[in-house]
Amino acid sequence: xxxxxxxxxxxxxxxxxxxxxxxxxxxxxxxxxxxxxxxxxxxxxxxxxxxxxxxxxxxxxxxxxxxxxxxxxxxxxxxxxxxxxxxxxxxxxxxxxxxxxxxxxxxxxxxxxxxxxxxxxxxxxxxxxxxxxxxxxxxxxxxxxxxxxxxxxxxxxxxxxxxxxxxxxxxx
Length: 172
Hints:
Number of helices: 9
CATH topology of the largest domain: Arc Repressor Mutant, subunit A
Number of domains: 2
Mean pLDDT: 86
CATH superfamily of the largest domain: Homeodomain-like
Number of strands: 2
Order of helices and strands: HEEHHHHHHHH
Helix content: 55-70%
Low-confidence stretches: none
Largest sheet: 2 strands, antiparallel
Radius of gyration: 21 Å
Strand order of the largest sheet: 1-2
CATH class of the largest domain: Mainly Alpha
Distance between the termini: 38 Å
Strand content: 5-15%
CATH architecture of the largest domain: Orthogonal Bundle
């Protein structure tokens, strides 16, 4: 909505406005482009014109959506899922992502999955078996190994720490 407001303010005609993408129906002049850039920056947004940078952002968005906002991770390979969502060859996407970010797509997915595990542990609604199933781990042992590798703590110890750190409202 913010992007639409900025486009309307500048009198620009646009088609679709999706997460991270806008279809502008006319060719922008250099002053119009600069004005749009300034207006978006005021709203905390950035204008990305480089097609590769846009694709990298789309890869990140697909991963965040996949890990954080879907009920359960699809029971397909991450590479197939990402490739299908973005209509690009996975090898191309993986190479582009690595060159640009200095990390692999798989490492990025693991980092987000571990953050999701932390959320589940914090809310204490699911046990480790349920979490591992929901996040498409092959086993609880695999989840635990990966969690410890990333955080330095076991999931159980992390959950225990979380409980110790919490203070009741009366004691704040």
